[in-house]
Task: structure prediction
Amino acid sequence: MQADILRKKFLEFFKSKKHRIIESDSLVPKDDPTVLFTPAGMNQFKKEFLGVIKDFTRAATAQRCLRTDDLDKVGKTCGHHTFFEMLGNFSFGDYFKKEAIQWAWEFLTEELKIKPDRLWISIYKDDSETQQIWKDLIKVPAAKIIKLGDKENFWPSEAKTKGPNGPCGPCSEIFFDQGKDIGCKRVDCAPVCDCGRFVEVWNLVFTQFNRKEGGILEPLPKKNIDTGMGLERLAAVMQGVYSNFETDLFQPIVKELADVAEGKMLEKIRGDDLRLIYVIADHIRAITFAIYDGVLPSNEERGYVVRKLIRNSMLNLMTRGIDEPFYTNWCR
Result:
């Protein structure tokens, strides 16, 4: 299933659940000095999470995002990127855990026809309510529900002790099992393992606190829902490929790069060459969308990030003997 169809299906599904479909916000966040770029779907709704309700209490988006904290992982793993699209549904004091979990499961297993036995669940270690919903209402076997701590299942990660200040809460994640032949191949492999077998597909955040200075968690005026599902990872699952870079979102760029870099078909390129191609393909998307949102290369702040991505990509190209202005030709 093509990524464009997945995006459309997601938004139409939540429209049928009475969500307002909101356009993606810019990569340059408005009135939010805490981040350089928009890192998640919830950022444009911070006021709503804090209790400033407009004329809707349910929303869904396909938000373009840019993060650099995983820069060293790009190309080395199958699912880390600088630029990506995050599919999300949100509730501002409307529905809470039960509906969020039910609809996530319905979309994946009924709308997309993913087999339930391929899905695993993680929950916050102290969240017995969420555990009960997954086990008793959704009928997920107890053996496929794992409990994790503040780093993995409180969002933002370790917010209680490290920040940042703002809306936060425990979360529950849905993982897709790529099969026992992927990764470490251990009999006891589970989503806590980082071998690559389990793909984190969807994060359901139960946003119910406002973190303040000193690690104080103040209950929000109302309980909210903030979910995020990477379109790139979902596309890989639905297209039956191991890596996001093998999906239709990346393949046109990857194949063009492969032809230019080696004069060979993609399947003949292996190892470090393929990893570098993946890195450059990722950076092309990030650079293009950053410039689209008005961020030009410079020596400061957001512009420096774009400059760094261009410079890093060109250096990688030059190590393979490519010194012509490839980026300008590609982005034209």
Observations:
- The domain at 3-238 is CATH 3.30.930.10 (BirA Bifunctional Protein; domain 2).
- The chain has two domains: 3-238, 250-331.
- The two ends are 28 Å apart (CA to CA).
- The chain has a mean pLDDT of 92.
